[in-house]
Amino acid sequence: MGQIVVGIDGSQDSENALRWAVNEARRYGDTLVILHAVHTPVVAVPFSSTVMLPPTAELEAYGNDLLKAAVTQIEDVLPRPDIRTELVVQPPVLALLAAAEKSRMIVVGHRGLGSLGAAFLGSVSMRLAARSACPTVVVRADHDVDGSGPVLVGVDGSEHSDAAVRFALSEAQRRSTAVRLLHAYRARPGSSPMEDVDTPADMPAGRRAPDREAAEHHVDAILRRHLDAIPEGLRVTADVTPLDPAEALIADSSGAALTVVGSRGRGALRGLLLGSVSQRVLHAAHSPTVVVHDGSADPDDDA
């Protein structure tokens, strides 16, 4: 048994993140850790280093009340022994990154209450996704946390993409749903992307656009690398598109139960913690979104 950590702050996004995390803890038989970070402003001492103010009694009371309300909301669907709460006096990103070291995954809302409401800022999800030691799940208030569609995963052949595929396969098996791989390729200059979009999938190989044919061979190679990891009976499909990768994933995420991306793809600059495609998908996907790093904990490994 491992643990899944969900960060909450009282916002609608974090409330939906809690619902998603409850469902996930039930699938894995994990302990659900509900974490709230009490963070007070940094005060600059004249002619000295910055210091952190201790949390006020009101902030601590709010945090404890929030955690109690969260437990009350979910204890009918998750056994009380499988729920743990943590009130942490630390900036939220640092608190969640520390929790990620010993967790199967971290779940947060897309945006929090903001500085006026304390705790989680909108940038927390992005910074966490860039640096977390385990997969990071980002949920918005309007996401369907009970979706039954396929698990959509963006692939490009990079190590981070391969890690995303492994995560997607495990998730799909537990959800009894399919996996859909989506690969975006760059059409040659002078060619029309729409010509490739309109190409029937069953068109003979010799008559398909060369760029599309090369992309399909690339996806086939990716699939072959993961054949041993595909559970028996799990349906896996793959599609290619000449469209912008982020736009294609965002558009197709509307029918997905979950959208999975690697933290960086082949096009990311060396040293960049979170690629531009991952950032855009994280902000605009129509389903809960998971960012996976190469080397992140395998979801089937107990943390």
UniProtKB/TrEMBL annotation:
Signal peptide: none annotated. SUPFAM superfamilies: Adenine nucleotide alpha hydrolases-like (SSF52402). Residues 3-140, 150-293 form the UspA domain. Belongs to the universal stress protein A family. This is Universal stress protein. It comes from Phytoactinopolyspora halotolerans. The lineage of its organism: Bacteria, Bacillati, Actinomycetota, Actinomycetes, Jiangellales.
